[in-house]
Amino acid sequence: MTDDSFRWVVLFGCWLLYFVFGLSVTSLAPLVGEITSELSLSRADMGMVLGAWQFVYIFLAIPVGFALQRLGAGKMLILAAVIIAASGISRSLAESHWSLLAAVAVFGLGGPVVSAGVPQTVSKWFTGNQRGLAMGIYITAPPIAGIVTYSLTQSTLLPALGDWRAVLRLWALCAAVAGVIWLLIWLAGRRIDRKQATRSETPRAYRLADAAGLFSHRNTWLLLAVGMGVFTIDHGLRNWLPEILVASGLTAAQAGYLASIAVVCGVAGALLFPAMAVARRRRKVLISMFVMSAMGCIALQGWSYPLLVAGLVLVGASSGAMMTISILTLIEQDYVGPERAGIAGGIFFSFAEVGGVMGPVMFGLLHDRTGGYDVSLYVLACVALLLCVLVQAIQPARPRSG
Predict the structure, then answer these.
(1) Of 223, 229, 258, the residue nearest 318 (C-alpha)
(2) Which of 2, 120, 326, 337 has most Cβ atoms within 10 angstroms of its Cβ?
(3) What are the phi and psi torsion angles at 57 (to 5°)?
(4) CATH topology of domain 204-396
(5) CA-to-CA distance for 76 and 53, rounded, in angstroms?
(6) What percent of the chain has pLDDT over 70?
(7) Can you tell me the distance from the alpha carbon of 254 to that of 194, in angstroms, rounded to the nearest whole number?
């Protein structure tokens, strides 16, 4: 096999790793009812569980960037697959709130490796237009994983396997298989052509001064705040959407199928909006997506079935690209550049995952206090509108000299 054709095998391995990453992220959402019932958890308890891995992620995103630079993405991605599988098995063995919380938190050790290591690997094996195509391909993996978990868990897997623990063990097995496949691909890649893995320039090691310098700019703080808001919306809805739909009067199986609508629209939005968000109209595109998200959250109140579907379309299409365009806006600031892009991405995810924790936890707490999800949806709508204001305050990036 030639180096040129082997890069697509590498991409397949990266896609698989991102797929099992997505399975782990979305696996609990369709099982909230069964888990809370068997373990006697409140919705607030479950909200803490759903936000546990994001909390760990906050502190590891930047250190993982340093580790990837020193150890290489290939080895680190093998470790990530092991961690994801271990988290899945641990979840299936949980007997209490705290044991389930710890099992989900373990995933936060491997999640940052996948989200940073996969792009790093793809950027080494692909160049030019092929790099953009490759990134567009692997980014479809988590949404497709979401479609699988939302649509199949309640309708097929739970009846076939018997209980929620068996379903989680199945996803853990998928992670283990993906890890073995990646190990074989990584070993084959080293044998086929060691030069291919380093065809791009050797990355400059991160320095603490790189991170400190980014915080001296106003736009950095605004975009980090935008990232927190985006993740509050995205992770809140992603983890509670099936339960929101069940509360609207649907069965668990129907809720799973309908939740898949949002994920499918998210894939479409991820392909459509970034292409539209060229520098001169990026602010308008972001504001449009935030307005769509606010309208979608209001429509999810469940006043009627058509409105419910419209809400799923709106929140799905907007959420698919909000994060991508936000981080792209940060990386393309004139004071960032290629030499600081990696550390800027790590900082962005560290701050954004604060919202990733707040979203799921807020839904659980407010449900226990109000008896429903309407207040949480209104809060998310307000967050989306606040993001419109923050984006307006971002100053346009100046062209880089040279």
Answers:
(1) 229
(2) 326
(3) -55, -40
(4) Growth Hormone; Chain: A; (1.20.1250)
(5) 18
(6) 90
(7) 50
- What's the pLDDT score for residue 196? 46
Cα–Cα distance measured from residue 352 to residue 316, given in angstroms and rounded to the nearest whole number: 19
- What ranges do the domains of the chain cover? 1-201, 204-396
1-201 and 204-396: identical CATH topology: yes
DSSP-derived secondary structure letter, 195: T
The first and second tokens of residue 282, run together, are 């990026």
Q: Are 30 and 181 in contact (CB under 8 A)?
A: no
Q: Residue 164: which H helix or E strand, with range? A: helix 164-192
Q: Cβ(259)–Cβ(155) under 8 Å?
A: no
Residue 126, class by beta-carbon neighbours within 10 Å (0-12 exposed, 13-18 middle, 19+ buried)?
A: buried
Find where tokens 């397949």 sit. 12
Q: Percent of the chain beyond pLDDT 90?
A: 48
pTM, 2 dp: 0.81
- Measured CA to CA, the distance from residue 328 to residue 348 in angstroms comes to 10
- Looking up tokens 């909230």 gives 32
Confidence (pLDDT) at 1: 55
Tell me the pLDDT band of 199, cut-offs 50, 70 and 90: very low
The CATH code of domain 1-201 reads: 1.20.1250.20
Report, as an integer, the average pLDDT of 7-17.
92
Least confident of 170-184, 338-352, 377-391: 338-352
